């Protein structure tokens, strides 16, 4: 397992407002705020991380909330759906919860033999709550309103929409070690056997689909999980050998990263398990304070005044 891609690490999306984003994901969806920090390239903007109790890779959804950003458009060359695993029998709970909170959703449907419920977050990001065919034993984060019997377990899958799947599929199979599990019409499901959860990538091929526009309510990038920096750099060599441009190693405080754009146009990241989210605050305190990259500590007073309140 050590020298493999271990499924999904995190997904980063764009929001239009920090408070409504925080309210939806912590209160309505019942995720934990794992880390409250700022965008490395734009410290006047939050980088908010949501996940399980400790921020386990495969549960982490993060956002850049740019106040007032225009709405994005789903289309080709994009991650267009984020699938969360939920327990069997929980969809009625979620239907009522979304109805009570005036959240946009579709009636439950089925694909690949799994029931799922589609919901849009406040910015139009498309989420799916999926009852997996295989038991998901990950421990959930509980809140006063979302208890363990209904709570999300972390990611089930992502969906990438593309005009032609071949080049993207080749990255998944030949570089990342995924295999084609099944196909239904133009949806191709790939899975890695390295991990039990957050292991699925769906590719949807739509030849005539116009390229999407990444803005509010869009996925910015998807990160795949590796054990440590040694494995990370092994993958850098593999990807560079294909002639794809890949960044140098970047320290993101809670993991180390590489970025490259796969041939289908989606920005991929590789991210390490180490050092994790408890490197600068205890597990009990995760997400409670504003944590800043070292280069922005001198701006703390200014940022604490200018960043939007989440409460």
The CATH homologous superfamily corresponds to: 2,3-Dihydroxybiphenyl 1,2-Dioxygenase, domain 1
> What percent strand?
35-45%
Number of strands: 16
Compute the number of structural domains: 1
Secondary-structure element order, N to C: EHEEEEHEEEEHEEEEHEEEH
Give the second-level CATH assignment, the architecture. Roll
Task: Explain what you see.
With 311 residues, this protein is an alpha+beta fold. The strands form 2 sheets. It has an 8-stranded mixed sheet with strand order 2-3-4-1-13-16-15-14, with helices on one face. The protein is built from 5 helices and 16 strands. The termini are far apart. It has one domain: 2,3-Dihydroxybiphenyl 1,2-Dioxygenase, domain 1 (Roll). The protein is globular, with a radius of gyration of 18 Å.
Topology:
Layout: E1 8-15, H1 18-28, E2 32-39, E3 42-51, E4 60-65, E5 78-86, H2 91-100, E6 109-111, E7 114-120, E8 126-131, E9 154-162, H3 166-175, E10 179-184, E11 187-191, E12 200-205, E13 219-226, H4 229-241, E14 250-251, E15 255-261, E16 267-275, H5 300-306
Parallel strand pairs: 1-4, 5-8, 9-12, 13-16
Antiparallel strand pairs: 1-13, 2-3, 3-4, 5-9, 6-7, 7-8, 10-11, 11-12, 14-15, 15-16
């Amino acid at each position: 397992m050590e020298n493999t891609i271990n499924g999904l690490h995190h997904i980063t999306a764009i929001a239009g407002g920090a408070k409504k984003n925080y309210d939806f994901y912590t209160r309505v969806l019942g995720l934990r705020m794992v880390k409250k920090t700022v965008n490395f390239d734009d410290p006047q903007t939050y980088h908010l991380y949501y996940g399980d109790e400790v921020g386990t890779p495969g549960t982490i959804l993060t956002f850049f909330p740019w106040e007032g950003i225009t709405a994005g458009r789903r289309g080709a060359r994009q991650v267009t759906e984020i699938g969360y695993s939920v327990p069997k029998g929980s969809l009625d709970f979620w239907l009522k919860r979304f109805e009570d909170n005036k959240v946009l959703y579709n009636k439950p449907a089925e694909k690949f033999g799994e029931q799922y419920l589609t919901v849009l977050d406040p910015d139009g990001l498309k989420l799916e709550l999926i009852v997996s065919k295989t038991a998901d034993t990950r421990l959930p984060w509980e809140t006063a309103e979302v208890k363990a019997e209904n709570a999300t377990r972390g990611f089930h899958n992502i969906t990438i929409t593309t005009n032609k799947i071949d080049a993207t599929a080749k990255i998944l199979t030949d570089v990342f070690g995924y295999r084609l599990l099944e196909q239904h019409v133009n949806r191709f499901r790939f899975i890695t056997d390295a991990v039990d959860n957050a292991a699925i990538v769906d590719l949807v091929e739509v030849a005539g689909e116009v390229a999407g526009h990444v803005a509010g309510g869009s996925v910015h990038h998807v990160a795949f999980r590796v054990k440590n920096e040694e494995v990370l750099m092994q993958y850098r060599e593999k990807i560079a050998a294909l002639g794809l441009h890949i960044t140098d190693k970047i320290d993101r405080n809670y993991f180390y990263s590489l970025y490259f754009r796969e041939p289908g146009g989606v920005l991929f990241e590789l991210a390490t398990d180490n050092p994790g989210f408890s490197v600068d605050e205890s597990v009990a305190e995760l997400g409670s304070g504003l944590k800043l990259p070292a280069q922005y500590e001198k701006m703390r007073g200014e940022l604490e005044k200018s960043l939007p309140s989440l409460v």
